[in-house]
Every structure is written in C-alpha cells, then in structure tokens.
Design goal:
With 657 residues, this protein is α+β, with helices and mostly antiparallel strands. It is 73% helix and 6% strand. It contains 27 helices and five strands.
C-alpha cells in the first residue's frame, strides 16, 4: 500500500487533461475527419472537423495542430456558434504551452458560448469551465478545480440526463478525487458515470477510461479483486484496437494491478509493453511513470543496480523531475538505494542533493534567520566604512569650499578692472567648471572604490561562512547521520526504538537547515553551472502555487567574470524578494539579456505598486544595496510603478575592470 501511495504522489495527472475523448478506433476517426475537410461540405462542418484535428495533433505535431486551428477559424467566421467553439480549441492548443494564454481563450469561449441555449453550446461551456480550472490548477491547487466542476460544469450538463458528456464529467471529477486520495468519493462518481455509459454508450472511449479509473482507484486502496473486474472490462473494449494510443493507459492500469497483487516479476513485461505504446505516441509523462514503476519493482526484487540505473534515467530525462517535489523524492530514493548497496559515499552525495532541494522548498521559512546572520557579520564593517566615507566626503567638501572662496575673491578683484571684466569672468567660469568636474570625478571614483570594497568584503565573508558550513560542519553531520542510519539498521528495530529514530529525524532536520543557510549565503548553482542556471533556479525557488514567474534568458554568456555574475545574481535576488514580499503579485516576468558589454534586466509584476515618492524617502536597506550594486557596475535603473504593477529596467556595464 505504501508503494502505491508513493506512486500516487508522483503522478502528475496524465489523465487529468482538458480534452474531448478520442475514440478507441483512432485511425478510422482521423481518416473520417480528413475526408470531411476534402469534401464539398458546408464551411461549418469543415471548420468543426479542422478543430477536432487540431485537438488530436496538439501534442503530436504542434505546427500541424496550429495550421488546422487557423484554417478552421477562417471557415467558421460566418457561423457564431462555430466561431465561439474556436476559442475553446485555441485554449486547448495553448494549454500545455502557455497556460495564461489558454485561460484567456477559455474565458472568451465561455462568454461567447453563453449566448446560445442548446446541448452542444452547454457542453462546450462546461468543457471550457473545466479546462479553465485545469489551466489554473498549478496556481490555485485542486480545490478550486473541484468547485468549478461542481458549480459550473455539471449544472450545464445535468439537465441532459444520460448524456455521454455527463458521464465524461463524472469520470474527470473521480480522477481528481483519486489523485487527492479521496477514494470513496471517487468510487461514487465513477459509479455514476458507469450507470450512464454502460447502458447508453457500451463501446465508447469514455466507458473505457471510466473502467481504468475505477481499476486504478481500487489499486490505490490495495483491493486487487475489484480492480481486476474493471480491468478485464477495459481489456475487452481495447482488444480490437492494437494501434490505439489508449493501450498505453490500459497497460499502466494493469501495472498497478500487478503491483497491488505483489506479482512483481509478471509486471515487468507489462511495463515494457506500456513503454512501447507511450513512446510510439509521444506520451512522455506516461513513459516516465512506467519507468518509475519499473524502478520500484526492481528495488522490491532486490535488483538494486538495475533499479539505480532506471531511476537515474528517469531523473536525467526530466519529464517527472521538473517538479521539485518529485525530484526531492528521487534524490531520497537514490540515497536509500545506495545505502542498500553499501556505497555510503554515493548515498551521502544524494542525501546532500536531497537536503539542498529540501532547503530551497522551505526558503521563505528561514529567510529572516539568514538576514540576521548576514547582519551579524556585516553591520560593524559597514558602519566603519560608512564613517570613513563620510569623513573623506567632509574633507573634500572643505577643500571645494576653500577653492571656491579663493576664486570668488579673485573675481571681485578683477571686477575693478572694467576693461578686463569679460575676459576674467569667462576664465573664472571655465576654471570653476573644470575644477568642479575634477572634484566630482575624484569623489565618484572614491565612492565606487569604497562600494566595491564593501560588496567584495560581503561576498568573501558569505563564501567563507557558506564553505565552512557546507563542507565542514554539514559534511560531518551528514556523515554522522548516515553512520547512525547504517548502525541502527543492523542493531535496532523501529517499533522498539522509536525514541532513537525520533532523534535521528531531528538530526536529519538539522542537516537540512544547515544546508539551506549555506546555500543562501553562496549559491552553488552559480559556481557550478553559471549565471543563467542560477537565475533559473532562483525563479523556481520563489515560484509557488499563487505566484507564477516567467524567466526569459537571452544571450547570457558564461565567460562573464564571476564577481560580476555574483553581483547580477544579488541584484535579481533583491528584485524578486521585493516583488514577492511587498507587491502581492500573482505573476512576475523576469527578462535578462546580454549584448556585448551591456547586460539588461527587466522585471514586471502585476502587484499593487507603490507611490513614486517612496523610492526617495524609504530607508530600506534592500533598495539601498540594490542601487549600490547597480552603481558599482556603472549602470542605470528606471522604476515605473502604479496600482496595476511595477516595472523596473536596469542596464549594467559588465566590462571587467
């Protein structure tokens, strides 16, 4: 049961797709749509066929899908209902590419379709609402999606009792409930769908997927007998269509069934069949789920080397690993697997990666502690250097005043000679301008030198502390934890020595906390992989369910000096921190681009903005440090803010001094 729940936690809802179900006889279905587009039929009929073809090819051939979509739009322009349906299929095209654009298209579809009162328009409205909820799932989670289905989609379709569309929506709701471990509720909605589909649509793809969803639901409850009943029914429906892409889903459900029955050896050839179909139809996420099941079974069979190789392949392919929680699970599994193999060095490496990633997922919880740590080591040094800077500035001001007094005295004397007034006046102005410019240049150079010393001192201190924490104390604690784990596995029993394992868990948490502090003091990804990767990780760490960050990197070169990369990283870190902490934004666009010696940073958010005078009057150290770093790189910063959001443009000179 525990193994199945781990698989369930990794499942990224590959059945949870905003789509109309494709018939099991796919070839006949696609051929019939192609024939409609070639025949002399009314434009609305051809447009509908083109939209369905666009939806079919959207994850197989994006260019062909886009072509069908645009051609259908042209043919639909004289039919209001078909034109309204266009926006729904436009949302479908964008759903896996740009969810923001997809959401806009679904909203347009809902508005346009609401003008009609028939079963077709009501069903497409229901689909558009459901699809809109899917597009917002990563931001808002599953609860709003369930609410949309219950309050928007189902009421539109319920009035057409015993319709295929109602069965479809019941099934999708059951899928969501299954993925959230609400198995009894999911079973209830699956049964409602079966009651409609078995009587009215006994050979439909909707019924096939309802059988699979029911089987999966019972598998996750470790009820193999009930799962087998529905799996056998699904097999009868798919058996006549060996070329259908739906075979991959059937073999996935069959894999879960064998895992439930602990028939691990028999599950391996089933997984290979599933991988064949998933790769054939470009179902990348499903293919990776098969590979993870294969890893799990190999580990259960104690074929540890094969299991390790399989999991490393899943991690390298990135389809599943792009989700941070999944990646954290993989790191932990690889650490445990290497412990089983007796490779403590490799186990420690994966445990360290797990700890770092776990730190990043909890970064906001320790941000204040990091600031205190930085303040402790930097405040005294900053105060001393600021005092020195002020003293030197006062000395320079005194020298300037003395020179100005001398020049003005000379001007008064020269006024006595009326014949030479114009000449000496011009000479005075020129000398004053030259001297003032020289003094300003000296002041700017000294201020720049002091700023550089302050920033370099801060970063050296951060690097030293991070290195001591990470390589010294962190490594020692991690080694102690692994040695304790190895010893306890051979000498203790979890059910009898709970207090020891509780202490071991506390030690693990302490190592994670220490790694987190070290990582924030000096970003390891910047040192190992360069500025672009470090900025991408930074955006990923700040992203959460109610905040989307779109990072765009253009032409960033890896040969930029490390100290300049570090200053750019700190600038972007401060910009993102301000947007997350103060702006209350739900969407942030960050663009970083390099052109020769110029580096441009643009950040836009849709937050509440701030008053123009705040920038001048605020005593925030964050904004002060931001301007220091921009000035250090001889840059310019422009801030535009109103109640609709804030835009900051920064131009830096990255030429190495």
């Amino acid at each position: 049961m525990k193994r199945l729940l781990i698989l369930l936690s990794l499942l990224l809802s590959f059945n949870l797709q905003s789509q109309q179900i494709i018939p099991l006889n796919e070839k006949s279905y696609v051929d019939s749509l192609q024939n409609i587009t070639k025949k002399s039929l009314p434009d609305p009929s051809k447009a509908t066929a083109l939209f369905l073809l666009s939806n079919y090819y959207r994850n197989i051939d994006s260019l062909l899908s886009k072509k069908f979509l645009e051609n259908g739009k042209i043919l639909a322009k004289n039919d209001p209902l078909i034109s309204a349906k266009y926006y729904y299929y436009e949302g479908q095209y964008y759903l896996d590419r740009n969810r923001t654009k997809a959401a806009v298209s679904y909203e347009k579809a809902i508005k346009a379709l609401s003008k009609f009162r028939n079963e077709e328009s009501d069903f497409f409205q229901a689909l558009a609402w459901y699809s809109y909820g899917v597009s917002q799932k990563n931001k808002e989670g599953y609860l709003p999606l369930v609410k949309i289905i219950l309050e928007k989609s189902l009421p539109l379709v319920k009035k057409y009792e015993n319709s295929r569309n109602l069965g479809f929506l019941y099934t999708q709701l059951a899928v969501i409930l299954t993925y959230n471990a609400q198995f009894k509720k999911a079973e209830n909605y699956n049964n409602k769908a079966l009651e409609i589909l078995e009587k009215k649509f006994p050979n439909s793809a909707e019924l096939f997927f309802t059988y699979l969803n029911s089987a999966n639901n019972f598998c996750y409850q470790a009820n193999g007998d009930e799962a087998q009943k529905y799996l056998n029914k699904a097999e009868k429906l798919i058996e006549p269509y060996p070329e259908s892409s739906s075979n991959a889903f059937y073999y996935y459900s069959k894999t879960l069934f064998y895992i439930t029955r602990q028939r691990n050896s028999e599950a391996l050839p089933i997984i290979d069949k599933g991988i064949f179909y998933a790769k054939k139809f470009n179902q990348n996420l499903l293919a990776q789920m098969f590979y993870f099941n294969k890893y799990d079974i190999l580990k259960k069979l104690k074929r540890y080397h094969e299991a390790k190789s399989t999991l490393e392949d899943v991690l390298a392919e990135k389809t599943l690993a792009i989700d941070l929680n999944n990646r954290k699970t993989f790191y932990k599994q690889l650490s445990l697997l290497n412990e089983e193999l007796g490779d403590t060095k490799e186990a420690l490496k994966w445990e360290q990666k797990y700890s770092k990633l776990n730190d990043s997922l909890n970064i906001e919880n320790v941000k204040l502690e990091i600031n205190k740590l930085e303040s402790k080591f930097n405040t005294a040094e900053k105060e001393r250097k600021i005092a020195t800077l002020n003293a030197e500035k006062n000395q320079k001001d005194l020298e300037v005043n003395k020179k100005n007094s001398y020049l003005w005295g000379m001007g008064l004397v020269l006024l006595l000679a009326l014949s030479l007034l114009a000449f000496f006046y011009i000479l005075f102005r020129k000398n004053n301008k030259i001297n003032t410019q020289k003094i300003n240049d000296i002041k700017q150079k000294e201020e720049l030198s002091l700023t550089k010393a302050i920033l370099d001192g801060e970063e050296r201190e951060r690097e030293r502390i991070a290195r001591d924490l990470h390589d010294g104390l962190g490594g020692m604690l991690a080694g102690v934890k692994i040695n304790f784990s190895t010893w306890s596995a051979n000498h203790l029993q979890p059910e009898k020595d709970e207090e020891f394992y509780k202490i071991l868990g506390q030690l693990d948490s302490s190592v994670s906390e220490l790694r987190h502090v070290a990582r924030n003091l000096m970003p390891e990804s910047l040192l190992n992989f360069g500025l672009e990767t470090a900025l991408d990780d930074l955006c990923e760490f700040y992203t959460r369910k109610d905040l989307e960050i779109d990072f765009q990197a253009i032409g960033i070169e890896k040969k930029v000096p490390l100290n300049i990369q570090l200053n750019i990283y700190r600038i972007v870190q401060e910009l993102l921190a301000n947007a997350v902490k103060h702006a209350q934004a739900t969407s942030i666009l960050l663009q970083c681009s390099q052109s020769g010696e110029n580096f441009l940073i643009t950040i836009e958010d849709n937050g509440k903005g701030f008053e123009k005078e705040v920038e001048k009057t605020t005593k925030s150290m964050g904004l002060h440090n931001l301007r220091n770093r921009v000035n250090y790189l001889k840059g310019k910063m422009e801030i535009n803010s109103d109640h609709q959001g804030t835009t900051i443009n920064i131009e830096l000179n990255i030429h190495e001094e």
